[in-house]
Amino acid sequence: MEQSIYLVTLAGTALVLAAAFSSLIAFRFGAPLLLLFLGLGLAAGVDGLGIQFDNAQLAYFVGSLALALILFESGFGTPLSALRQAALPALSLATLGVILTTGMFGVAAHYLTDFGWLESFLLGAAVASTDAAAVFFLLRAGNLHLRDRVRSTLEIESGTNDPIAIFLTITLVEVIATGFDPAADALLMDIVSGFIIQMGIGALVGVVGGFAIVRLVARLNLDLGLLPIFVLTLSLLVFAAGGAFGGSGFLAVYLAGLVAGNSRIRAEAGLKRFQEGVSWLAQIIMFLVLGLFATPSQFLGILPVAVALGLFLVFVARPIAVWLCLLPFGFQRQETAFISWVGLRGAVSILLAITPLLGGLENGRAIFNAAFIVVLVSLVIQGWTIGPLARRLGLIVPQRIGPLDKVELELPGSAHHELLAYTVVAGSPVERGERIPRWARPSLVVRSGRSMKYQESGRLVAGDHVYIFVSERYPRLLDRLFASRSEVDPEDADFFGSFALDPNRSADELEVNYEIGLTETERKLTIGQLMRQRLGGHAEYADRVSLGVIELIVRDVEEGGKIASVGLSLEPAAAATASIPAFLSPAELVDRIRALLKRRAKPVPTPGEAEKTDP
Predict the structure, then answer these.
(1) Which of 49, 147, 225, 339 is deepest in the core (most CB within 10 A)?
(2) 110 lies in the same domain as 91
(3) Model pLDDT, residue 591
């Protein structure tokens, strides 16, 4: 008995260490990390090293707890600015997008497999949501600096679409297991009412739980070493309470993290670091367990059909669902194409595919195997190509500031001030002699191991460590002072245009100089107003507006969304958009419909008339 404990511990820790080391490979080559973790689990399983693990209930339990921790960390790290910027399109993808994907995939599964209609839609619901861990990792590992709205939409969608997919999957399992008549009129009403109740209770518990976490942390003077464990336990309590009260525990724990992370909670920096570590451990354990649970030797019978379904999901179902959901929000064609491609399926889909086994469905194992293969297809095809595609579509934008070495330090008893530690890098403004503003209070400089007052340090040199005391609302200027280059580097001229324009100048000057075809109303606007109008009322860093022979680029945006600087390019970069045949915007759809109607309305000459007009 005692020896078996050691053997189990040895095997478990060896797998976790192997997964941790494999992350180095993923960061080095930009590989989908989940694929490596799943591969380790499969290699150690019954068809590999021979570790037998066939406990569906334990796999689902471990996966659910791990997913709850991952969702709390995702919510905790999502700033409200990103939520305000991309909430509506992301929530559209997380709700309507999941339903549309489920429907289209279910129809394809019904005609390609022997599953019934409900079983086909069950498989569709299991693979309908994107995986937050895979999306976050690939955006980080690839060092992709995307436009803010695109990145925020992807991250919020992947963090919020799990509850919808979970509800649909569990509901369909219950319907199939109980033999409910799918033709009954009450079925749809039961699903809709159940969805509203679950999401409503989950949202309420999550918001209340998030504020309760912040309140308890502020009231209880817990030791800083115990505080992260306390918050972690409270997050699991919110997850359990949301499910126990009949709501969605996954939605509750995500919203609790969102509320807590945006409420200036005590020891925020330490909590973030701890939760990132716990989230990594949760991902490793969940992926390894799901890999161990799978049996690759059973994949052969369903492999061709499952691969075909995976391709249908990647190239048909996901793009159509994304396009329909984003139509009202003014996304450019290349942005919609990229969002549709970053629809990676992962551990959540495999976890949901276990529910048919728990429900005792006849085709439960076949559904699980098919979902597992679909996930592998998604990771292999999409996971390796996200970086190159983003560059091909022109969605990579230069960083606003250069490399920055900064550490946020906790101050005991102060929730409204921060102590920042900067390392002076060569080429930064402070290294070139720029002074630190008066609203920041530099208190200490460490140079070559010696500590000195800032006033006695003289001019800062590369390698100095500077400790600065600031309020919680310190401006971006402080980061820029310690960055290695200015906001718009001359090397970025190809991206930001040949020269800068004042956004407050009249748009009529553009018409006079370049004859770009502005209307009389547009000529009365400023350049900044014209750009905001063409961008649907919202402008962000690196947005582009093509106007005839020129292209205007947003170089900087002030607080509140006002355009602060504009670049002008005489070589519009429209090739990426023009090469995408799909994802038309509403305006483009209207133009094409009008052109089609004009061609149909044009009278076709009779043979006799054609002879008369033929010279």
Answers:
(1) 339
(2) yes
(3) 67
